[in-house]
């Protein structure tokens, strides 16, 4: 169990809300209630590093009005960490929180846990900020990057605490841009060896081309090795062809299993794997890899949920 998960397990037992007044924290964590587990892990990691956080409902004191408590916390925060998912993307409450943070002059750091584009309303407020992509396991690695980025930002803000107005805001924003990693480009060959990665159409094409090349090299090597034991050229060609077909079948089965392992075991996904094997027998890897490329575009099962015993993405059914 990682340190972040240990703290996440006990995040509800941390400092009482009554003692956590607005000026005693630096980071406001905005999240959909569906993504609470990810938000808890984020909060735990930051607070273990000494970065104090405010998060609903943990820090709403008994008797406080919900909306007023959130508005007050946002107005006093220095940084807003937005757990960005499809749930947050479609939440009017999250949009109101982001808008409030922008107007309050807080620095917004979206942590993207799903490969989706923001709605027009969200993009309006976040078009100029840097993103932290945290879509691949382990989550705790991304949270450590987030922690170091926030530490650097808070230090930069502290250096200019005595300065007022737009110059201070500009320098703090510049520090954020330097501290945060560049948002990952949508490269065709991104995460090419990661079978628990949900690909875009362009990335699925890149995956297909890469594994087609591997299948050609593998089939040729197996065919040459098998044909070398034959007594004649004709026999060598026949043995080599059979060996290549067997290798192609095993190759497609292995790829299919690796892709299916991290995705929902639905009937359509199983049919894609079976279609890949049949096409590999009939037409070779050129056609057999097409269904697997399509399968690589399927969502990873339970993406962005956290395993109860560790910080990271659960790769089985969730």
């Amino acid at each position: 169990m990682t340190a972040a998960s240990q703290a996440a397990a006990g995040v509800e037992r941390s400092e009482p809300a009554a003692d956590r007044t607005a000026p005693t924290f630096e980071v406001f964590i905005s999240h959909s209630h569906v993504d609470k587990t990810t938000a808890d892990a984020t909060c735990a990691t930051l607070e273990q590093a000494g970065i104090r956080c405010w998060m609903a409902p943990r820090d709403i004191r008994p008797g406080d009005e919900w909306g007023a408590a959130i508005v007050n916390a946002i107005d006093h925060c220095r940084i807003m960490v937005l757990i960005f998912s499809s749930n947050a993307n479609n939440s009017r409450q999250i949009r109101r929180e982001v808008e409030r943070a922008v107007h309050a002059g807080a620095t917004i750091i979206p942590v993207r846990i799903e490969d989706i584009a923001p709605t027009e309303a969200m993009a309006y407020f976040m078009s100029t900020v840097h993103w932290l992509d945290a879509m691949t396991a382990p989550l705790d690695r991304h949270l450590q990057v987030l922690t170091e980025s926030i530490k650097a930002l808070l230090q930069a803000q502290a250096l200019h605490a005595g300065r007022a107005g737009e110059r201070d805001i500009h320098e703090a924003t510049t520090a954020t841009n330097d501290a945060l990693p560049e948002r990952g480009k949508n490269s065709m060959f991104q995460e090419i060896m990661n079978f628990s990665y949900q690909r875009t159409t362009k990335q699925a094409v890149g995956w297909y081309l890469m594994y087609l090349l591997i299948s050609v090299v593998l089939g040729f090597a197996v065919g040459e090795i098998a044909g070398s034991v034959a007594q004649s050229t004709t026999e060598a060609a026949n043995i080599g062809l059979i060996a290549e077909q067997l290798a192609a079948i095993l190759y497609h089965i292995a790829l299919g299993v690796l892709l299916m392992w991290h995705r929902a075991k639905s009937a359509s996904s199983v049919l894609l794997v079976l279609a890949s094997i049949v096409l590999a027998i009939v037409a070779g890897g050129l056609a057999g890899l097409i269904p697997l490329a399509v399968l690589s575009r399927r969502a990873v099962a339970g993406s962005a949920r956290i395993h109860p015993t560790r910080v990271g993405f659960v790769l089985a059914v969730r």
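The chain has two domains: 3-179, 201-295. Residues 3-179 form a domain with the Rossmann fold fold (CATH 3.40.50.10140).
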